[in-house]
């Protein structure tokens, strides 16, 4: 389902959200999202990996919009009860004093958990015993926990695709111990060492395709999936977000059966969790990120749900 892309008709409140991303400017987009009686204008501006440009844009929009999303990187990594700060991302925000900046970590920990539980509860996806590759679980701990609760047979790809070593993980407890050891170090290093920025987002790298091929469901950050996936993923289910029309065409050509995005589709594409988190914060006029319970309430209030699209073959249970 594509949320209607329309401008304010004069009877609703309007808010403006902009995402400043270290990603490619080729993925820039705009759209309008209705949240209750508020119309949110969404914008995404990529800086092609230019940290100075990103910092300048963040400062330029400070006080000019209702909320800012930080894309193409994380400010925080949430794993279990711990939250880690990316040093390089924090520097980008040193001169942002007025407008709240959201990196999507709060929504990943709530909306994505909610979506997986809803997909399982209503029978859209039966995760029990299904082989799932979650390309990076430290970045999506809420999704990881929900997939485990749903009975999935999970391979966590954090070391496979984040660090480049052929060491698959299969338990949350192991992942949590690994995060406690590695993430404090990783968050002090340059972002580009672990996550593609700028033109690197368009470069494919063949890395451990067997884990993609042996899985029924591929989940996680779309740029990780796109970067490392093999050319064919016949019959697979993709659970992700930040997917453009061109990305959907690529997945269809690769033979993917079903695409599920955890954020609603707006004007032909799904925006990142940083944009959606900023939209929720703007909708209630908050000046900072919200508590998990508040996000859960807004998810239900605004009826946020997954977008499900059959790319190949007849529509059926995913």
Describe what is shown at a glance.
With 318 residues, the chain is an alpha/beta fold. The chain has twelve helices and 16 strands. α4 runs parallel beside α5 (141-149).
Overview of this protein structure:
By secondary structure, this protein is of the alpha/beta class. Helices cover 33% and strands 22% of the residues. It is built from twelve helices and 16 strands. The chain has helices spanning 51-61, 87-92, 105-108, 111-121, 141-149, 158-163, 172-186, 209-213, 222-228, 245-253, 273-283, 292-301; strands at 2-3, 13-21, 29-35, 38-46, 67-71, 76-79, 82-85, 101-102, 131-134, 153-156, 217-219, 237-240, 258-261, 265-266, 269-270, 307-310. The chain has a six-stranded mixed sheet with strand order 10-9-11-12-13-16. A five-stranded mixed sheet has the order 3-4-2-5-8, with helices on both faces. The protein has a three-stranded mixed sheet with strand order 1-14-15, with no helix packed on it. It is globular. The model is unreliable at 1-9 (pLDDT under 50).
